[in-house]
Amino acid sequence: MSFPERVFSGVQPTGTLTLGNYLGALSRFSDYQDKYECLYCVVDMHAITMWQDPKELHANTLGVTAAYLASGLDPAKNIIFNQSQVAAHAEMAWVFNCVTRIGWLNRMTQFKEKAGKHRENASAGLYVYPSLMAADILVYRATHVPVGDDQKQHLELARDIAQKFNHDYADTIRTQTNGEEFFPQPEPLIEGPAMRVMSLRDGTKKMSKSDPSDNSRINMDDDADTIAQKIRKAKTDPDALPSLEDGFEGRAEAENLLGIYAALAKEPKNDVVTRFAGQQFSEFKKELTELAVETLAPVSNELVRLKGDPGHLESVLKAGSERAAAIAEPIMKQTKAIVGFVGA
Ligand code: AQP
Predict the structure, then answer these.
(1) Which of 94, 143, 199, 265 has the greatest CB tally within 10 Å of its CB?
(2) Is 256 in the pocket of ligand 1 (CB under 6 A)?
(3) Are residues 164 and 48 in the same domain?
């Protein structure tokens, strides 16, 4: 069965957004606004899977909304909203908790990374995070999901959940909808050279807004001096830049800085390697700083301006939530009927 093309993506309001969030997700969102019907969500229910101070959660939710707008999303063209204002996300997540297998959740690397050694103390919400993410996407029957490479595993799980639901309820789906499948298999949209931006302090860890070290990341609202200082301090090695891409073997930090340059410049990584072959990092870092400041300055100026008008940001979220609910509610109602709930 073919489904109308629809994009869904979300960002957690867990802190100030980083260059990783920008390059892996936000900077690409506006590319889709003229091509697809797009829903961009501030996933506040995902955020509370780890402890969030309520005042900070509130401020960060408006902060992510401002970052969406500052990155070029037009609230008239896109549906911009926060997850907790559309109850169907939670309702669908419960149905999916009963479709998802524990064995599938046990394989999720993000849970292992975030729960760390204190697994027994992690919230149940963190464990079932991927089924809420599947609900976010499928409650709109979204077909395309732009995400960073780090979210690929969760998206594969969303596809498994869609497939198992379609299979388990095949008989009712056929009689009630005349279709073969109720949910689409959502496709990841993962493109470009720096789809997993790594920490500036450790090239084996992804750049993350909740990393305790602020020097591990560039924040979307860092000023030029802070960006310059963080890039100057970024971990590298004593060797010059190689002349071939495979010369980065065992040099994760060096490769990360080059990948960031390529993504900011929107150039293939190979071209950037050729241009800087043999240069010392001290020189390359100056060029990278210039490019990062030039690219982020207009976005961060707009971000600061928008954050100064919380009333406007709240009204964007309210209007977006109403539009989102109008799509989700009939799909949720139909899901309940397929499952066999009375009253749906
Ligand atoms: N380092 C990254 N490189 C590329 N893409 C990234 N994304 C996040 N970090 C990187 C992409 O940003 C989108 C929103 O992510 P999120 O905030 O919902 O959750 P996350 O992936 O867990 O991001 P963080 O910054 O690491 O948040 P915390 O610290 O709260 O866990 C997603 O599309 C993601 O792929």
Answers:
(1) 199
(2) no
(3) yes
Instruction: Cite the beta strand spans of the chain per DSSP E.
Output: 6-11, 37-42, 79-82, 144-146, 187-189
Mean pLDDT of 11-21: 94
| 8 Å CB contact between 44 and 5 | no
On whether residue 209 sits in a domain, the answer given is no
Tokens 């509610």 sit on residue:
329
> Which helix (H) or strand (E) is 231 found in, with range?
helix 224-233
Whether residue 344 is contained in a domain is answered as no
63-114 pLDDT tens trace? 999 999 999 999 999 999 999 999 999 999 999 999 999 999 999 998 998 8
Return d(Cα 65, Cα 76) in angstroms, integer.
14
3 state DSSP class of 288: helix
**Do both 144 and 270 map to the same domain?**
no
Amino acid at 330: P
Atom of ligand 1 nearest to the CA of 14: 30
DSSP conformation class of 299: H
pLDDT tens-digit series, residues 282-330: 999 999 999 999 999 999 999 999 999 999 999 999 999 999 999 999 9
What residue's CA is closest to ligand 1, atom 26? Answer: 208
Q: How many domains does the chain have?
A: 2
Ligand 1 pocket mutation pick from 17, 19, 21 by most atoms within 8 angstroms of CB? 21
Q: Which residues pair with 7 in a beta bridge?
A: 38, 144
